[in-house]
Amino acid sequence: MDYNKILSNMPNFFQINDWKFKDFLKIIIIINITFLALVLIEEFIFEVFFLRQFFGFIYLVLLPGYIILRILRLHDLGIIKSSFFSIGISIAYIALIGILINIFLPFIGINSPLSFVPIFSLTLISFFILIVIAYFRDKDFSNYSVINLKGLFSPIIFTILLFPILSILGVLLINLFENNFTLLFLNLLVCITFTIVIFYKKILPEKYYPLFIWAISISFILQLTLISKNLIGSDIHLEFYLFKLTENAGLWDTSIPMTVNSMAIISVVPVFFSKLLNIDGIWVFKLIYPIIFSLVPVALYQVYKAQTNTNIALLASFFFMGFHKFQEMMYTNARQGIAEFFIVLIFLLIFKKELMSVSERFLFVFFSLGLVVSHYGSTYVFIIFLLFIWLSLLINRNTIRKIKESTIVTFFVIVLSYYIYSSQSINFKSIVFTFKGLFMNIYNNFLDPSVRDPIAIQAIGIGIFDQMYFFHIMGKIIFYITMIFIVIGVIILFFKKDNFNFLKEFKPTAYISLLLLVSSVIVPSISTTLGMKRIYHLALLVLSPICIIGSIGIYNKFLKFIEKSSKYIIILKPSYKKIIKNKKTFFNLLIILLLCLYFLFNTGFMMEISNEPSLGSISLNYDERKYELFQENDVKGLKFLSEKKGNSFTICFSPQRWRFVLYNGIDFDDVKASFLPKNQYRYLFLRWGEKEVGEMVFSKNYSFNYVDINDCSFFELENKIYNSGSEIYFIPRP
Fold first, then answer.
1. Which stretches in the chain have pLDDT values below 70?
2. Kind of pairing, strands 726-730 and 720-724?
3. Residue 605 in contact with residue 187, Cβ under 8 Å?
4. Which of 109, 107, 86, 302 is nearest to 210 (CA)?
5. Is residue 39 part of a domain?
6. In Å, what is the CA distance from 76 to each residue of 15, 18, 471?
7. How many angstroms separate the CA atoms of 338 and 342, rounded?
8. At which of 147, 176, 200 does a domain end?
9. Counting beta carbons within 10 angstroms of the beta carbon of residue 720, is it exposed (0 to 12), middle (13 to 18) or buried (19 or more)?
10. What's the total number of domains in the chain?
């Protein structure tokens, strides 16, 4: 049997929107019937391990998107665009269906529209309607798509597929034995493999570059989201709390005046996964959303490749994944991660040479909806991108404008109508108050460092060497080198006709991204409102390839300097000839060295092997885990408190940890966080990590105070009412 022939002609399930409609319909029916059967079996007979979750994931995340692609008659998109567009359409479609049934079903007497029966029934009905529409719209298209998997079983592919396996295994070893050797080895293996792929092009065909990028991405995301059975981070606890409110009530309460509550990706979409897949909702945040977010670097690779080349696109994607905010995103702020996925889908639509077709404009609406219901901050940044692109094309009258006024108007209508409708218009009001506060701070506090994120202060060189550890300093130097490359890359883009294919839509996005970074440092309140790390991470969506372009520009200048110097310094002539002969190899060597060091510093690898204090590597560093992770004793303590508490009380604990209590039985209104503990609070919660470290951390306006537990009079033995790893103290009112 000729296995190579079989592998080179496999049915392409990633592009089923290109199949004959008869074959397409068979796949849709098989998945629908299988999922329906599994749901009925589990509801009425016995539980079927994993199968319902597997088919349910395909049912929710892929099927609606592929059907809508056929309705829009979008074909021959390629594997990446077909599958990623399907995922984006599906998530946006679920959000839209959830919002509509939450609005209209209560009018016909269904008071819990987001419970299992309404969700399951209406999802089936809506899918059937979509299939019927797709049949009449696209029944005649046929272009059977195959996928060439020749070379899939090569050693390099095996190594790449080891990344996520080693990541999960490493997490298990951490949790069982506090042994981080496997995760440390994974860091080195990724860098070694990356070096081999860059230097030896033939070892990994370019068609497998997206798989390589995804394997790195998912590995470093999962080792953080799976490091604990509980949620970790900050905002994600509040996100989970609001999801549980919706799930328990079977109704999304849009009257809650909270910006996070207005995000349907948090309050509504997880309910569909939880109910239909029959899983604990925590796994939506720890596994399903991280899997979707892990696709962002792969989509960016496609965007970068279309405007540069495969080598620069691969280097830029690796650089993007190296920034620690990318690795930490899904355990701290799930809604921004999903918002970024929708942003890169829009990039795939607008950053191409051809004009958007009518069908692609419909996709733009879908992805805009997905972005708007995911994260308000990312939406505001994208508005800036969109307006700046449109204005730059408007000024350049010789350019065909791909971003039309109708596109801008459509996006603004979606933003305003949704943000005014949801959560008592809290998001609309917040942007108004943000701009008001911004102008007030510019006028009153322009030179006041307290209205800036400390990271923004460090960006201009203040306090960057406060921690005099060698590897910390080296990490900061490497970071500043990449920033210099970005600035030089933007200058090259602006003043020179580059040798690449950067589109006229992409260039202004790069300019405004750099301008946004500079503004965040100079203008008060921007960095504290959005967060400096968040702003930089969003800017890297566009600036990552610009960093590589900047490094190429500096390298070429260096070669010219050596050439001129060799005319006067004879000893340099042999070196110059050798560099010129192998200039591409020397460049790859230098940029790989820089990017791998950047990657290893951001993952915390360098600090861990040097035994220096970590920069926040929860997966590698024991001290970070001890303080950041919530143990089972903490959960038990909170459950005790939720059962024993009276009707009139408040809880005091570290503000950086307060969101943790929200998904452990404590109501939001009962939670209080204080700059310093005061005796008017009825209960004070001391979690295991704080007890072990011997201090609590309190914050105010991004300034942190560490309070020694032994110096606090209210930690008296007679005040202690609970002690099981975590401790709870009853503080009498004065």
1. 1-9, 151, 397-403, 423-425, 427-468, 497-499, 524-530, 563, 565-582, 614-616, 622-628, 630-631, 641-685, 687-719, 725, 730-734
2. antiparallel
3. yes
4. 302
5. yes
6. 8, 7, 49
7. 7
8. 147
9. middle
10. 2
Among the listed residues 159, 160, 282, the one whose alpha carbon sits nearest the alpha carbon of residue 217: 160
**Residue 537 CB contacts under 8 Å (≥ 6 apart), including other chains:** 323, 325, 326, 329
What pLDDT is recorded for position 55?
Answer: 93
pLDDT of residue 706: 43
* Number of Cβ within a 10 Å radius of residue 303: 24
- Report how far Cα 471 is from the mean position of its chain's Cα atoms: 27
What are residue 179's phi and psi, to 5 degrees? Answer: -110, 115
Domain end (from 98, 132, 147): 147
Is residue 72 within 8 Å of residue 359, measured between CB atoms? yes
Q: How far is CA 542 from CA 304, 480, 500, 506, 535, in A?
A: 9, 18, 15, 8, 12
Q: Where are the strands (E) in 359-448, listed by range?
A: none
Q: Which amino acid, residue 211?
A: L
DSSP string, 18-79: GS-HHHHHHHHHHHHHHHHHHHHHHHHT---TTHHHHHHHHHHHTHHHHHHHHHTT-----H
**Dihedral sign computed on CA atoms, order 300, 304, 306, 311:** negative
DSSP 725: S
Instruction: Identify which of 228, 216, 187, 323 has the alpha carbon closest to the alpha carbon of residue 609.
Output: 187
Q: Which one-letter DSSP state was computed for residue 673? A: E
Instruction: Report the SS3 class of residue 129.
Output: helix
Closest CA to 349 of 147, 544, 503, 141: 503
Residue 297 falls inside a structural domain: no
DSSP string, 561-603: HHHHHHHH-GGGHHHHHHHHHTHHHHHHHHHHHHHHHHHHHHH
Contact 465, 473 (CB under 8 A): yes
CA distances from 186 to 161, 170, 601 (A): 12, 9, 14
What three-state secondary structure class fits 553? helix
Strand boundaries in 120-172, DSSP class E: 146-147
* Gap between the Cα atoms of 234 and 660, Å rounded: 8
Q: How far apart are the first and last CA of the chain?
A: 85
**Of 338, 336, 325, nearest to 603 (Cα)?**
325
Provide the pLDDT for residue 611.
79
Query: Is residue 714 a part of any domain in this protein?
Result: yes
- Answer yes or no: is 478 within a domain: no
Both tokens of 70, joined, read: 């056929």
CA-CA distance, 493 to 542, in Å (whole number)? 13
Decide: residue 104, CB within 10 A, 0-12 exposed, 13-18 middle, 19+ buried: exposed
**Can you tell me which residue has the tokens 């971003």?**
403
Q: In sequence order, which residues have a C-beta less than 8 Å from that of residue 718 and are 6 or more positions away?
A: none
Q: Which two tokens stand for residue 60?
A: 């929710």
The model's pTM = 0.89
Of the candidates 275, 135, 276, 161, the one whose C-alpha atom is nearest the C-alpha of residue 214 is 161
CB 21 within 8 A of CB 142: yes
Q: Greatest CA separation found in the chain?
A: 90
Q: How far apart are CA 420 and CA 658, in angstroms?
A: 29
Q: How far apart are CA 637 and CA 432, in angstroms?
A: 41
Three-class DSSP category at 643: helix
The two three-digit tokens of residue 553, written as one number: 């520009």
Q: Measured between alpha carbons, how far is residue 489 from residues 135, 181, 227, 311 in Å?
A: 49, 38, 37, 16
Q: By residue range, what is the domain housing residue 136? A: 3-147
Beta strands 703-708 and 683-686: pairing type?
unpaired
**156 burial type by CB count under 10 A (0-12 exposed, 13-18 middle, 19+ buried):** middle
Cβ contacts of 39 within 8 Å, gap of 6 or more? 52, 56, 120, 276, 278
Which of these, 648, 636, 660, lies nearest to 722 by C-alpha position? 636
Pairing of β 10-11 and β 695-700: unpaired
